[in-house]
TrEMBL record:
EC number of the protein: 2.7.13.3
TM annotation in the entry: 18-38
Provenance organism: Sphaerotilus sulfidivorans
Gene Ontology terms for molecular function: phosphorelay sensor kinase activity
Protein name according to UniProt: histidine kinase
Length: 463
């Protein structure tokens, strides 16, 4: 059954993203607020500038402004001066005729009729009218709408940029601060990773933050309960194994005597006694393996072990071991001894060989591999679908109801050494290849895949 991978999100990344969005949103809202608040203030400042400009221009015009000749002469002079199409002025007489204007001012009056004070022209100008003397002439000073919008836009843009810079800078500072605040969580993770609940002399150090203390306490309590349960299970298994060893040894001795005393002509009885003794021997090996695997502490006592010599010492009637040349060679060509716990490795190999015998194998080829060895039997093999299911059960350690005791014990021994148990079809035809590594090879790809092979269907068999 495949498991769907769920993407795990980072707290730091989520905080950083949230802070960035908050900064951008704050900048946009600040710009909107500036637009709403500053628009009125900018209009007032620009209107004040128009009023001041009108006063300045009216002061520059001659006192004889009511004399058309003087005004015409002034118009000729002023019209030669460079001007702006966004700021203009003009003097309009009582008859709505432009008497004098700036070089870029429109030739027609800015307003259709005389009007003092501030107003808007139909063409979009902001106009301030100032009466000149008593002859009905009026001075119009105007600013285009584009100029006013540009001024307001400059203020808003400057404020927006400043707000965004402040927001992004604040978000960056807060992100760095958040990362520093998350460091105690990383430290707690490292402490939990290296914490051994089975070591009663060690405990998790106090959490560096108040919010992490409940998590630390919960993990410590969980580790304590798990350690207590493991100790209880080990004690039960060890006592059960010890309690079974004596009657099993006595049973083997009694069966050996019965076989010797069995009359030669009682062939059927002799065969039944022999099968019973072999079954008792298998049970004894399982008990020994359990006792070895679940002994107190399960400390791995590594030392160089010659796999060929170890296998040769395992009694397995009816099974022939065929060792690769590397196991029988002398000198540098001989297979390198495995750094392993001899007792655990013996228990694992004994169960694998017993599996092969029970499933019809008569010969097992032993080959060296990187960090371990491979056992290839000549039995009927396993259906590819069943083989894949067994490998998945070993990879996920879902042993219950899916693997037999032999494969489970061998896999536990391999994992205790830092290795794995791999299943595959025999490269020589029918049969099963079991690769036992005691340390992960450098080029090992942990993909859990099992190569498909051919062989008789034995889907209902557990090993």
């Amino acid at each position: 059954m495949s498991r769907t991978a769920v993407a795990v999100q980072s707290i730091g990344a989520r905080l950083s993203s949230a802070l960035l969005w908050i900064a951008v949103t704050w900048g946009l809202l600040a710009a909107l607020a500036v637009w709403l608040v500053v628009e009125h203030e900018v209009d007032e400042l620009l209107d004040d500038a128009l009023i001041a400009s009108a006063g300045l221009i009216s002061g520059l015009l001659p006192d004889a402004a009511t004399q058309d000749a003087v005004l015409q002469q002034a118009a000729a002079t002023v019209s030669l001066a460079p001007g702006s199409s966004r700021f203009s002025w003009q003097v309009v007489d009582r008859g709505e005729h432009v008497v004098i204007r700036s070089s870029r001012a429109p030739a027609e009056p800015l307003l259709p009729r005389h009007r003092e004070g501030l107003s808007h022209s139909p063409e979009g100008w902001r106009v301030y009218g100032l009466a000149l003397g008593r002859e009905g002439r009026i001075l119009y000073v105007a600013q285009s709408r584009e100029e006013r919008l540009e001024a307001l836009g400059d203020v808003t843009l400057g404020t927006l940029v400043a707000a965004l810079l402040v927001g992004v800078g604040g978000a960056t500072a807060l992100r760095r601060r958040a990362r520093r605040e998350l460091l105690p969580l990383d430290q707690l993770s490292a402490q939990v990773q290296h914490h051994d609940p089975m070591d009663s002399g060690t405990a998790l150090p106090p959490a560096e933050r108040v919010e992490l203390q409940p998590i630390r306490d919960a993990i410590d309590e969980l580790g304590r309960r798990l350690a207590q349960r493991i100790r209880q299970e080990r004690a039960v298994v060890a006592h059960a194994a010890h309690a079974l060893r004596t009657p099993l040894a006595g049973m083997d001795a009694q069966l050996a005597v019965a076989l010797r005393e069995c009359p030669p002509e009682a062939t059927g009885t002799h065969q039944r006694l022999q099968r019973t003794r072999e079954a008792a021997a298998r049970l004894s090996r399982v008990v020994t393996a359990l006792l070895t695997l679940f002994r107190s502490g399960v400390d791995i006592e590594r030392r160089p072990v010659d796999a060929a010599e170890l296998l040769a010492d395992i009694p397995m009637p009816g099974l022939r071991l065929d060792f690769a040349a590397a196991f029988t060679a002398e000198g540098p060509a001989r297979a390198t001894p495995l750094p392993a716990d001899a007792d655990l490795l013996t228990a694992a190999l004994a169960n694998l060989l017993d599996n092969a015998v029970r499933h019809g194998a008569r010969q097992v080829s032993v080959e060296p591999v990187d960090g371990g060895l491979r056992l290839v039997d000549d039995g009927p093999g396993i259906d590819p679908m069943r083989l894949q299911a067994l490998q998945q059960a070993l990879d996920t350690q879902a042993y219950e109801g899916r693997t037999g005791l032999g494969l489970m014990l061998a896999d536990l021994v391999a994992r205790a050494h830092g290795g794995r148990l791999r299943l595959g079809p025999s490269p020589y035809g029918s049969g099963l290849a079991v690769t036992l590594t005691l340390s992960e090879p450098a080029d090992q790809r942990d993909d859990g895949a099992v190569a498909a092979g051919s062989g008789p269907n034995s889907a209902g068999t557990q090993r």
